Amino acid sequence: MSTYIFGHTNPDSDSIVGAISLAYLKNKLGEDCVATRQGEISPETEFILNKFGADVPELKTSYAGESVYLVDFSDLAQAPADIMEATILGIYDHHKLGDITTSTPLECWIRPIGSSNTVIKEAYDYHGIDIPKDIAGMMMCAILSDTVIFKSPTCTKLDTKVVKELAKIADIEDYKALGMEMFIVKSAVEGASARELNTRDYKEFVMGSDKLGVGQLEVVDLSVFDGIKNDLFEDMKKLKEQNNLHSVIILLTDIMREGSQMLVISDDDSKIERAFKCKLENSQAWLDGVLSRKKQVIPFLQAQF
Description:
This protein is an alpha/beta fold.
């Protein structure tokens, strides 16, 4: 019986590639593992998989009775509804420890670094397993994505070192140029609905007695949103009502200006303003230097809620 490996709902490149890279490692170690996903892949992830000739992992949303490894999350809000009916064998992550619990001991690799694929690279090194060229290239791209090509405050010296090692294995000389090509793909919004954009990289968090949804769109030029921002707001209102949320926050992150335009639909704007020491104007605020949801957004929201 296969063990399934998957990342969070609304999977990003780190969670999809992490499932693929960890499945390969586990299979080399003698476990029968299959990479899966909980949701649709983003244009950036599609670019990465196509670049290195990889298949999209199988879509699977129910895991009751299965053995699983979790990649890039440990929060119930980002897990399948029946996760507590599965046997969790391990977690590979780089976020805060979430609220998922287990009834048996588990393998747990959680590190305060820029990407889950950096954590998985450490596991390859620990077990002495060589990384294939195609998987190395995908892992490198996933780390560049999560660290915003090393600009994110979550990026560590280890992430930079691992990218260089993976680039060498993948025979990629100018990895930063590939990273920019990837972000240009990530910036494409033409043809996408407001819901597709709002949930492209979106997570829900339980904070106290409230639940918040926080999404992030990273682009090379915020002007791509000029004609669709009102559509994003209208969909945020619907998303808030449909999911019974206290607030929906969408970060429009400009990786060149190194900051984020924050869009807010909330039951209490003052909590959001206090969290970021800002004043919302037309339900928006510019957050200079804010690139990381996990380090520069979620902790400040939790302090308020």
